[in-house]
Here is the input.
Amino acid sequence: MLAAVTYQNGQTEVVSRANPEVGPGFVAIRVAAAGICGTDRHIVHGAYPAQFPRVLGHEITGVVEKSESALISPGQAVVIDPNIPCYACDMCHRGEVHLCRHRQAVGVDMDGGFQEVVVVPEEQVYVLDPSVPIERGIFAEPLSCCLHGVDRLRLKAGARVAIVGLGPIGMLLSFLLSAQGSKIVGIEENRERCEIARHNGLNVFSPKDMEDQGTSQFDAIVDAAGSAKVLEWALTKVRVGGSIMVFGVAHPQDMAYISPYILYQKEITLVGAYTNPFTMSRAVDLINANKIDLVSMMTERISFSDIPQALQRSPKGFKTFVVL
Here is the structure.
């Protein structure tokens, strides 16, 4: 089979290798499509840890080819939850499996979806409805993470929310929060993304235009870009008693200047949102029910041979995904 292997120096090479073995309790999945996530690009550029050499890709959808599980059958269309907790550490025992001290992730700590066949534990596999176009399954993992973020915000209907960064995560968050009754303002400097977001009915401003809005205050601000500057800006725009959520993955050395006094005096709630604890089934249910417009975000379809180049550059539009 073909596999796109990324090395310590950030270079990716398409190689031929034997199909992986399938042991008891594991499932072999013939990959139909895999999304390229910002995290994949962070790994390639040295801004996110991974074990090398590694086949990246954690947004995976495909068809079961071989199963040693009594619960999963060959021929089923499925998606993968890439995050595998140990279930034995103190965080897992507290029910916070996403903060597992020994968590392993498909496409980070073990080989992922940028290969023709991937083998994963049976408990990581979720079944797609046969009526759903299988390529849409690439959104299951990011959607599950966004559901956790929405859970963390705990907003009331009618809340005014600014989402900074309208990549796939920002758009998914806007869909989910809008469905809960929030009034969304998107902030994005990429013109192509702005146009698509406006076409989807989102009220969008560039960062400069947002500054021209003067003293607009938001009930909540979401950093979906991953930037210290966004966090600093959010402190000036969130209302007294409001919330700021850090969702985007910033570079580990990107530091923000935050006034503890402002956090205290404005009684701001500052939260992070990390991966997808027990939210994958909800994400799959939403995809199976066709409740979210995913098609408009699938803007760059590439072939397997394009993976090395695509990992080195920014996406075109919203989502880059490889189809096998």
Notes: Residues 89 and 136 are 34 Å apart (CA to CA). The chain has two domains: 2-143+276-323, 149-272.
